[in-house]
Amino acid sequence: MTDQVLVLSGGLSHEREVSLRSGRRVAQALRSRGVDVVESDVDSGLIARLAELGRPVVFPLLHGEAGEDGALREVLTLLDIPFVGSVGSAARVAFDKSIASTVVAEAGIATPRQVALPHETFRELGAAALVQALGDQIGFPMMVKPSRGGSALGCSKVSTAAELPAAMVGAYAYGAVAVVENFVEGVEVTVAVVDRGDGPQALPAVEIRPDSGVYDYAARYTAGATRFLCPAELDDDTARRVAKTALAVHDVLALADLSRTDLIVTPEGVPTFLEVNVAPGMTETSAVPLAVEAAGWGLGAMCADLVAVARDRGVRASATRPDLPVLP
């Protein structure tokens, strides 16, 4: 492959350092396949850099709002630059947990009970009354998290009403809307879906066992803080349901090339959707590279195939969501 690939990472989100680590790893993996790679941060010189390179294929590895809310992908489309991954409109829906969960639930996929509360509403209507209502409607324990964000930043497990106001403040530190949902007991897994040109394929599920009991930012990106099992310790029928659910999420949200769906498998074996990521981490402690290895693929080969698909496909218009399937 002689085409240049621009690996984009960094940015100004709270997940900048994780993004830089992902970018370095993907760049190294592509170079191992002989790909001509240019690494770039996202700054005021990006458009000029793209112009100098001609028409590279962009591999976006920006985590958090700057890279996953669809805006950057819309800019690349405007500039007639092909890129790996979902188009802006699909990324925008997937990035907002309250919207994505609603769309996914309409498709017949299990989701937690959820309420989305803007900061203004929580402040103006009074925290005490809303805490009581949330406890009555959602129940304890519950999860509180920013509606738009990643890497578990601002996420808290809340076991009592007394803990809820501080958890809401923590979530609002990372976004204007907080999502409150019932805590789903079960086995936490994450499933990567990859399309190397022959249609989406679910990779082996990765089971997540954080030492702290909560898969927060530290558990995600501190070496040794979490035990990952790949493939997950699931029976064959449950593993198939998990893979089917991740593929359905990828399809119903009109995602492309690469996604990672986070699920809880309940004691009854029901995969329950938590969230989906259109620019999953590729660091040394990230789940997707583990799944790639378990599938018998090389990370470099997979990334090079994704670049080839993006190059051959060219620039795309915004996605339109297909009719919502209902899972049996």
TrEMBL record:
Keywords: ATP-binding, Cell shape, Cell wall biogenesis/degradation, Cytoplasm, Ligase, Magnesium, Manganese, Metal-binding, Nucleotide-binding, Peptidoglycan synthesis. Mg(2+) 1 binds at residues 262, 275. GO terms for molecular function: ATP binding; D-alanine-D-alanine ligase activity; metal ion binding. Binds 2 magnesium or manganese ions per subunit. Its EC number is 6.3.2.4. GO terms for cellular component: cytosol. Pathway: Cell wall biogenesis; peptidoglycan biosynthesis. This is D-alanine--D-alanine ligase. It comes from Microlunatus kandeliicorticis.
